[in-house]
Amino acid sequence: MFYRETGVLKTTYAKDMELFPIPLDKAGFVVVMVLAFFVIPLVSSHYMLVSIFIPFLVFSLAALGLNILTGYAGQLSLGHAGFMAVGAYATVVMYNRYDVPIPVALLGSGLITAAVGSVFGLPSLRIKGFYLAVSTLAAQLIIEWVITHVKWISGGVYSTIDIRALEFMGWQIDTAAEKYQFALIFVVIMAFFAKNVVRSRIGRAWMSIRDMDVASEIIGISQFKYKMLAFAVSSFYAGVAGGLLVAFYYGSANIEEFHLLVSFQILGMVIIGGMGSVLGSFLGAGFIVLLPIFINLTISFVNHRIVDLSKVFTLDLIANVENMIFGALIIFFLAVEPFGLARLWNTIKDYLRLWPFPY
Amino acid sequence: MSETLLFALELTISGLLVGLMYSLVALGFVLIYKASGVFNFAQGDMTFLAALALASFVVKIPLWISLIVVLAIMLILAMAVERIVLKPLVARPPLVLFMATIGVAFFLQGLAQGIWGTQPRGLELGLADQTYDVAGMFISNMDILGAVVAGILLIALVWFFQKTKTGRALRAVSDDHEAALAVGIPLRKAWGITWAIAGIVAIVAGALWGSRVGVQASLALLALKALPVLIIGGIDSIPGAILGGLIIGAAENLAEGLIGPAVGGGIKNFFPYLLALIVLAVRPYGLFGREIIERV
What we know:
Strand order of the largest sheet of chain A: 1-4
CATH topology of chain A: ABC transporter involved in vitamin B12 uptake, BtuC
Number of helices of chain B: 11
Low-confidence stretches of chain A: none
Mean pLDDT of chain B: 80
Distance between the termini of chain A: 11 Å
Strand content of chain B: under 5%
Number of domains of chain A: 1
Strand content of chain A: under 5%
CATH topology of chain B: ABC transporter involved in vitamin B12 uptake, BtuC
Radius of gyration of chain A: 22 Å
Helix content of chain A: over 70%
Oligomer: heterodimer
Number of domains of chain B: 1
Shape of chain B: globular
CATH class of chain B: Mainly Alpha
Order of helices and strands of chain B: HHHHEEHHHHHHH
Distance between the termini of chain B: 58 Å
Order of helices and strands of chain A: HHHHHHHEEEHHHHEHHHHH
Low-confidence stretches of chain B: none
Number of helices of chain A: 16
Number of strands of chain A: 4
Structural class of chain B: mainly alpha
Number of strands of chain B: 2
Mean pLDDT of chain A: 83
Strand order of the largest sheet of chain B: 1-2
Largest sheet of chain A: 2 strands, antiparallel
Structural class of chain A: mainly alpha
């Protein structure tokens, strides 16, 4: 009734290929952007911004990167936390030591990460599937070792580098709201870029590799070029996400924050959100960021209002329930909704198309 | 013998014995992969669960009863995984199944620590740790026990897969799910059996590892050590898992002992992966892995 495509007359090819062909979509997008840019920083508390919105943005970007590689190009990577670490340290080193302006430092560290990612993507030309997954695991471990053992990067084993006060062309980025807005600009631009890349020739080439690499090679799609491109673009996103994570969230680069488990979490975001969907990366990231907070809130709610949990269950069980729910949810989503939250969103849209007269 | 050579030999031998332990974990992976085409990331956490359960039972009841109890737990686990995880995911791409096992891994780790606590435990198998002096090198009796058990397990498994009807059925399932169903092999039963066997391997590996290094969450990370073993040996080869484990064990020990001091140490963590990458460059399916010919 309210959401429909009919009546939208497209007269040029350019109009047909628009990102938002339906006026309502366009209006909806503008509303979301206004909400995200101006309303959220105004109405949400410091805690909300710092512990929900900023990590949500950063991890969305990381998930988007992995989704490009896994969801679109079909190459599995278990080393994305390592790539994020590369971006994180590159940002801090550039910004702290060489006074590179922070946006340039972020993009530059993205490029450095893209180079590193391409190197570790090289095995994908010869191996696939689980063998590839393991070789990207190697990337994670080798990166961790290099960062902790090369003094020039990290200052030695176990060291953390704090990033100095954020400032860009005289603008002191010190409140949570400013950090949030700054990160948001990056995320929006890069999400747009991703959305357009996957609808381009490059995106189609990736999808053909994902669906059947032998066939796509036969019809003349260069496996070398597009696999390397997928790794480069994907790790570019991971690198920028790592830089943002350090600059706007943690405030310091610490290798412990880029543990292998983070790689799995990002993978979880991609699966739960929906493979091969830009929107899905955001939904998945939101889900995984909110999940622990939600579980903790539920536990404390039950504790205070209903029954003292420590009398019923042991403390160990309560402390570990988060892992269990995380694992169970991954299985649940794979079984019930293999295309993730993004597909759920499409189902809702389909339903609204006919609502309230579904005949 | 010169000093360095003796040192290298000692490193190799102790590495080989540790490598056998890696082989045990890798064996669990290979079994499940061979029989269901699933890369089971939860093998490390199954090992951890088995070790933790054993460690907590063995202080209260005799060893053999606790072994039986843990065996029952692993069998129930295998059935549950088959029923809850694998059944809804039949005929899905292998990647999806792989990710599901990551979910299982998280769940099991939470479950194990939730029930038995997060503090590290020791695991006493009632065996005093003795070291023997063999031609100037020290070898622990725990290592020898591990080697013997691994050897027996290997022979038993090879016999099972080559000679028994069930074993052959499992191999057929791994070749082609649908063809196996068509000739009347009960797919779900086959998967249940496979996971049960992998659970038994997890108990053996968990008991041996746990008694050596103690039982704690880092035991689950053993799975990561088994991955390069699989790559080198080939993901679907039982002898490959054993040989791969030996190679990795010896190589990482040698690398840490001989190259490590020069570059600041800690290379033991990633050296196996580096080795695996080199092997992959030459043989993309590992040393013994079956080459898959793809057709459009």
